[in-house]
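We store chain and fold; example below:
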Amino acid sequence: MRQIAGVLALTVLLVTSGCSGDDEPAPVISTAATVAASSAAAEIVDDPPGTLTCTALAAAVADASLMQDGVVDGIVGASSTADAPVADAAQALAVAYTQASASKGTESEPDAVAAVSAAAADMVQVCADSGLQTVG
């Protein structure tokens, strides 16, 4: 009888411990998903440094999309792993783009947009000088 009472008490304890006021189940952390995510991130390597930046620039130049929202930000973001000349050229492009965006609708807008094109052309040359020519 003692054993039955002990088993019954243990069963009640186990059943009620799984019952809480929460309707949502506890999150399950999958190590397989974590490993897959870190493997995917590891596949994107900027080797040699600046390749990702110059590739992004080449795509923007080919698509004539430098003045579209987010394009220059993407190039600048990719430059975080680039060597100094490429990263510096990306920063110069960002400055020109910021000034062009601020000049929208003003008399200086055409010149500011031309400055973005000039900064992009300079950056294409920096990529070529760095051995990362991905345009033309």
